Amino acid sequence: MAGAASEERMDRTAETNASNRAKQTQSNTTGQPTRTNRVAGERRRRRPTKSGSILSEDVIVECAVRLIGHHGAEALTVRRLGAALGCDPTAVYRYFRNTDDLLLAIADFLIGETLTGYRPGPDWVASLRELGLRVRDGHLRHPRVAIVAAARVTRRHNEFRAVELGVSLLLSAGFSPADAARYYHVFIDTVLAHAALEASYAALAPEVREADDRSWEETYRMLPAADYPAIGAVRPHLAAGMSGSPFEDVLDLLLESLARRV
Which GO terms describe its molecular function (predicted)? Predict the structure, then answer.
């Protein structure tokens, strides 16, 4: 705990220093690049890390994704990231304003993975279904990352692409602009909520998942029917009904409902 608190203090101090340097750079009103800008640009292009790789936004994001995947979101500190990259931790601030800015880039990275190879077809329902499944699959590939990224608005290129694709499919179905925006919100929030739930489950320790799964078969079977008559009525089907993922059923119910509203 003390080590984590120390790392957080170091990150906050480094972020403050980086912010102050950025303000000093912005105060130059001559229209000419400042020395800080020139040096930062040169370092971005030319200075390899101790491991021999050249830093870039993509390299930092991919390293951060691995770091969170192996150790959880609490591992995302500039100190640990610098150690994993083989560079001075403050080098990260040449690419990201702070750790939250980095987290938004990580969230956008997940969206980019989701869209890789995606080509919507003429059937808007089938295309939205595939998009929803891709979102879920991406969350399950990176469950620990998805837990902290799913609720964020990245304000970046891949998110723009995803919104453009989803809204355009609903417009092509015949929805008005107002309804297309509304139903895209319904669609993507439903997909993200269920995908994040599955990611949270996938991130649990295996023994915890197994204990939770067994409870539907063991604990619920022992409940007295007099106290829980509805559970008693479905008892033979409850374990099967609660096992596995309901994601595709939820997605199909939503899309069927939308199709009836065109």
Answer: DNA-binding transcription factor activity; transcription cis-regulatory region binding
